[in-house]
Write a structure and sequence with these properties.
Chain A: It comes from Pedobacter ureilyticus. Chain A: It holds the Pfam family PmbA_TldD_1st. Chain A: InterPro entries: Metalloprtase-TldD/E_C, Metalloprtase-TldD/E_N, Peptidase_U62_metallo, TldD/PmbA_N, TldD/PmbA_sf. The complex is a heterodimer of chains A (544) and B (438). Chain A is an alpha+beta fold and 544 residues long. Chain A has twelve helices and 25 strands. In chain A, the strands form six sheets. In chain A, strands 1, 2, 3, 4, 5, 6 and 7 form a seven-stranded mixed beta sheet that branches. In chain A, α4 packs across α5 and α6 runs parallel beside α7. In chain B, α4 packs parallel to α5. Chain B folds into two domains: 206 residues, PmbA/TldD fold (2-Layer Sandwich); 222 residues, no CATH class. Chain B has ten helices and 19 strands. Chains A and B meet through β2, β3, α5, α6 and β7 of A and β1, β2, β3, α2 and α4 of B.
């Protein structure tokens, strides 16, 4: 109905007749999810908003027509808990009027509703202008005309038959049960963001973005002792298609205590190993608190990078825009201006990269029409840059935005979000197995577990899915109740060695939370296995 | 527009069910109209208004269920969403835990809606924020805050004749005030269903006073301390505890409510004798929906009495397995306290630490419910019944189960989030390291 109304009102009914009938449906069919909305139609709708905004006094406007597809398959032991396909489709309109921002969104995509939402955005901007202290300053951005970008996938996960995906998860569960698991939950999350951006700068950008995340939690119970232990999957959420779930030996790193996966994941193999790990966890010895050298696998280190490097280098936090929620940052502008703030050791080279293949944050253009790229954030241990967007770039003297703007839905306001922020691999050849050989008293950690950091990103505490004891260069068993507590700057200054590019892998999260109302963002962090010396480790065991 | 009346919602749900060809069909229709304004650095940063409405259809053949959702409501779309759910159901494997829909139920009328809150508009919000900004600017502080109000409806109907509808409003305000040097920070947060109760000026003055009072914090050694938790800090700790009142995970042996050797800790003295927790959606201070998502009536339930666990929550399926009555949880939680004010608790403390709030709380060990996190936005040292000086923030590692065994005193409960939570005096609270964060 919405489509027909719109077509009628905009006078493009003839060509509309040959459009896929689902173009404007909000339905969740697998087949229809594969049929994107016609680009010409999106442009027409966007132009209604842009023209209405200008006619009502906006000095700038951008429009995002978003179609967000999600598919979730959740299983438990021998059954499927849930299969859900969802789609959210609508338009968000952001304007500057009288120097202030205004935003409104609608899922009624007929001409009148778009115009009405646009007028509301302008009215909100004008209302906000009354209590504004200084007008918005946008970094200049040229229009790109009509362009497009797609995640380079091999197999669209939405096109893989449901039965095949369910079979995979139930096979994973079966392996877990065969391995003695009492409980096993396995899930597969698939995301397709079909985003169309248009602005009064003259850009019309059509993007098709894919993400996938297979995961499981395996639980064993020692009823006599009243104890349970779990191990989560060591997969990473990826900016890939279903090919991520098709194992390749060349994408595995074997030889250590845990098989590690690069851009192809073997879920069946991982769950078999997990069943063995949980037995070891149930028998693991409690850690003696103290200083240890940490060898951190990328499946664990990504989250430490995310929290202690990614977040404090977000310029909006540095400036105070997140003070009421996510917090501010210890990396204040004076530290960056000094050009000598020693964030970490010389090993620490951190790069922001919005284009990295396979990463969750890879897009061609951000959600305010800026073409994406790559830049240094920490160079040889020194803070050299932040992450920014168009209305904040001028504050750090940048002439252009770094393309870090993102909204999690058409009805969310876009704002500064973290690009992929990664620790570069070392240049000298070094494998993880060789790194372990030189550690006298250490812990080798895999997988994310508990994580917590303060609102300015000084003090953090992390634990892992698996913590092996390293004694005199050898892995001698598993620790339980191990968590490391550190200060960000001290921790990164204790970074002494990185493995080489052959060990480099991505980790990531689907649900980085920030903003009010809170929005989720998906972001990856790459790293090689990395060694940190003399880190404070606590024992988290308690009795209740 | 997105807020349908009971009759309007019922009409759409009936129409959807009329298209169903499945053995059983459950439909839910929800809508919200939400307006917000966000400010930082003493100026409005973003503001918006969002209306959404969505319909979800779950169709079942035998024990095979499929679910589809939609946000268009013309007849063709409604027919299609039903067809889609039915197609998915046919493709789905059997769910051995499937429970057939409930028949008609009786629900009490909820107290969740307030017309004045529903009528809030961008001007109302801007005026409320202007009051907050007048405080920060007047005190030479920098404010960052968020005001959001929502007007929602939710409704469900199924092929067995069950129908439930609820309409609710909420207004939520929070603000952080920081001094110009970045050495002091204060915070307040408040939720109400009723706009009349929300005073952004008075709340902002509290945040300002904490920002000034917390400047120049001294470092004291981490360790075990008697703490006085303001209701917000107490509530931050208790969320994870409340989520643990689930019978199934306890029976399965993977919860802090699981008993050594099997079974649950239902009936055990798990907390201090002065701990009493109940939920009641008809409590006018913390009104909630009187029905759960699966159509069960939600009524007043005692969860903990004199420290003893009295009830665990049972889903319909788990109840059927354990020969129990299903029992839904409610967000309208009340932790009973006394009549003492926060000031009274401070006065009675020889040495201790006052905590305004906690931050970044994460589960460290689900078995003991050990949590870690940090203090934030105003932490103070108490000596001889008085606040002596602000102290630097701490990281804690503590379990709310242990915390509720170390209760020295509970003050007068106040609305915090969706619950009524008292300020608490707790002994031996474990702080494990210092943080430089302000």
């Amino acid at each position: 109905m919405k489509r027909r109304d719109f077509l009628y009102l905009t006078g493009i009914g003839t060509s509309a007749a040959i459009l896929p009938s689902l173009a404007f449906g909000k339905l969740i069919s697998v087949e229809e999810a594969l049929t994107p909305v016609d680009v010409a139609l999106k442009k027409k709708m966007a132009d209604v908003a842009l023209n209405t905004a200008k006619a009502n006094g906006a000095s700038y406007a951008d429009v995002r027509v978003g179609r967000y597809l999600n598919q979730v398959i959740a299983t438990r032991e021998k059954r499927v808990d849930n299969i859900a396909n969802s789609e959210s489709y609508g338009m968000g309109i952001r304007v500057i009027a009288n120097g202030a921002w205004g935003f409104a969104a609608t899922n009624n995509l007929d001409k009148d509703s778009i115009a009405k939402a646009t007028k509301l955005a302008v009215a909100i901007a004008k209302g906000n202008a009354k209590i504004m202290t200084e007008p918005v300053q946008l970094a200049p951005q040229k229009g790109f005309g009509e362009v497009s970008w797609k995640t380079p996938i091999e197999t669209n996960a939405f096109s893989v038959p449901m039965a095949e995906k369910v079979d995979l998860l139930l096979s994973v569960n079966n392996e877990a049960l065969k391995g003695g698991a009492k409980y096993i939950n396995s899930n597969l999350f698939m995301v397709n963001e079909q985003k169309y951006f248009a602005s009064t700068d003259g850009s019309y950008i059509d993007q098709d973005i894919h993400r996938i995340w297979p995961t499981f939690t395996l639980t064993k119970i020692d009823a006599v002792a009243g104890k349970f232990e779990t191990r989560n999957a060591l997969s990473a959420p990826m900016g890939m298609g279903y090919e991520y779930l098709q194992p390749l030996d060349s994408e595995k790193i074997k030889g250590g205590p845990v098989t590690m996966y690069k851009k192809r994941y073997d879920m069946l193999e991982d769950v078999r190993e997990a069943a063995v790990h949980v037995d070891e966890k149930l028998k693991a010895k409690p850690i003696a608190p103290g200083k240890y050298d940490l060898v951190l696998d990328p499946s664990h280190l990504f989250l430490t990078i995310h929290e202690s490097v990614g977040h404090p280098t977000e310029l909006d936090r540095v400036l105070g825009y997140e003070a009421n929620y996510a917090g501010t940052s210890f990396l204040t502008l004076d530290k960056w201006e000094s050009k000598k703030f020693n964030f970490g050791s010389k090993e620490v080279n951190i790069v922001a990269d919005k284009l990295e293949t396979g990463s969750l944050g890879a897009v061609g253009y951000d959600d305010e029409g800026v073409k994406c790229g790559k830049w240094d954030i920490i160079k040889d241990g020194i803070l050299v840059n932040y992450q920014t967007i168009r209305d904040q770039a001028h504050i750090i003297g940048e002439k252009a935005s770094q393309g870090c703007c993102y909204a999690d839905s058409w009805d969310s306001i876009q704002f500064q979000r973290m690009p992929n922020v990664s620790l570069s691999p070392g240049t000298a050849p070094l494998s993880a197995a060789d790194m372990v050989k030189n550690v006298e008293k250490g812990i080798y950690m895999f997988g994310r577990n508990s994580y917590s950091i303060d609102q300015q990103r000084y003090n953090f505490q992390f634990s892992a899915q698996i913590a092996y004891e390293i004694k005199e260069g050898k892995i001698v068993g598993m620790f339980k109740d191990a968590a490391y507590q550190a200060n960000t700057q001290e921790f990164w200054n204790s970074c002494v060695q990185r493995c080489d590019k052959n060990d480099y892998r991505l980790g990531g999260t689907f649900s980085d939370g920030k903003g009010q109302p809170s929005q989720a963002s998906a972001v990856s962090h790459g790293s090689p296995t990395t060694r940190f010396n003399g880190v404070n480790v606590i024992n988290t065991g308690r009795k209740i | 527009m997105a807020i349908l009346s009971k009759e309007e919602a019922q009409a759409i749900l009936k129409k959807v069910l009329s298209y169903s060809k499945s053995d059983a069909c459950e439909v839910s229709l929800n809508g919200s109209d939400e307006g917000n304004i966000r400010y930082a650095r003493n100026a409005v940063s973003t503001a918006g208004q969002i209306d959404v409405m969505s319909l979800s259809v779950s169709s079942t053949f035998g024990k095979k269920t499929g679910t589809a959702t939609i946000n268009e409501f013309d007849d063709a779309s409604l027919k299609k969403v039903v067809e889609r759910a039915e197609e998915l159901a046919k493709l789905a494997p059997e769910n051995p835990e499937y429970m057939p829909p409930l028949g008609p139920q009786t629900f009490a009328e909820s107290l969740t809606y307030n017309a004045k809150t529903a009528a809030m508009n961008p001007e109302t919000r801007a005026d409320m924020v202007a009051k907050s900004l007048s405080v920060s600017k007047g005190a030479n502080l920098e404010a960052a805050g968020f005001l959001v109000n929502s007007n929602r409806f939710s409704s469900i109907m199924n092929s067995k004749g069950l129908f439930a509808y609820n309409k609710s409003t909420n207004v939520s305000f929070s603000v952080t005030m920081r001094n110009q040097q970045g050495t002091g920070s204060g915070y307040v947060e408040q939720d109400f269903n009723n706009l009349d109760k929300m005073d952004t000026l008075a709340l902002s003055k509290i945040a300002a006073s904490k920002a000034n009072g917390s400047a120049g914090a001294k470092a004291i050694e981490p360790g075990k301390y008697t703490v006085i938790l303001e209701p917000l800090a107490a509530s931050d700790m208790l969320g994870n505890l409340f989520r643990g009142f689930d019978a199934r995970s306890a029976d399965e042996g993977r919860s802090f409510m699981s008993k050594k050797g099997g079974g649950t800790r239902l009936g055990e003295q798990l907390f201090s004798e002065n701990v009493n927790i109940y939920s009641d959606p008809l409590n006018p201070e913390v009104p909630g929906s009187t029905w759960s998502g699966d159509g069960l009536p939600v009524t007043k339930t005692q969860w903990v009495e004199n420290g003893v666990v009295k009830n665990l929550s049972y889903s319909r399926y788990w109840a059927s397995q354990k020969n129990k009555q299903p029992l839904p949880f409610s967000r309208s939680i009340v932790l009973e306290g006394g009549n003492q004010s926060l000031e009274d608790l401070i006065k009675s403390t020889e040495k201790g630490i006052l905590v305004t709030r906690f931050w970044y709380i994460r589960m460290v060990d689900p078995q003991t419910l050990l949590l870690t996190g940090l203090t934030r936005d105003g932490t103070f040292y108490i000596e001889n019944g008085e606040i002596k000086f602000p102290i630097k923030n701490f990281r804690f590692n503590e379990s709310p189960v242990i915390m509720l065994n170390n209760v020295e005193a509970l003050g007068k409960p106040v609305r915090t989030g969706s619950g009524l939570i008292p300020p608490m005096k707790i002994r031996d609270f474990t702080f494990s390291s210092l943080s430089d964060a302000i």
